[in-house]
Structures are given as C-alpha cells and as structure tokens.
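Onboarding guide, step 5: your first structure request.
Type a short instruction followed by the sequence, for example:

Predict the 3D structure of this protein.
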Amino acid sequence: MTRLKLLDLDRGVEVEVEIEPWRHPSTVVEKLRELGVVKHDETIMLGVSTGGRQIYYVPAATVEQLAAYLAQSRQKLCFRRFSIHRYQP
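The system replies with structure tokens like these:
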C-alpha cells in the first residue's frame, strides 16, 4: 500500500490515504469518498497550488508514480472540491 498525504485547501486540513500502488490516481477520489472527506455530489481537482490559484499537470499513470513525483518535486499534493450538478446515484 502507498500512503499519500493530501492537503484539503477548502478545509485547511491534511488527509492521509492508503491506496494500492498499481491503481490509477483517480482512485484517490473514490478513497476520499469512502472516508467521508468528499461528498457523493462532489469531485476534486488534484494538483492545485497551495495558494489555490493554479492547477498543475501531475504526470502520473499510477499512484506509485504520483508518490514518486511528489517526493522528487518536494511538494504537497493539494486538492480543491467542485460540485457535480444533477448527480443522481
């Protein structure tokens, strides 16, 4: 399991998740929904700057590559919430 620390810019807290290293980075959203951090009618944007003004391209095809990129670039993985309109489960 790969452990990722994410900074929630909307609430100002750090969230830690464990995900299998071979999974796609989009599973981070699913994991945050399981933990109750993100509601069912919300999604997140990964790679937001700590100031919340810019969104960066994060070159990763797996969670393992995402963790390696973050370690190499020495930055925190920040996210911001966005609502999904007309979502019906």
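Each response can be followed by summary notes, for example: The first strand starts at residue 2 and ends at 8.
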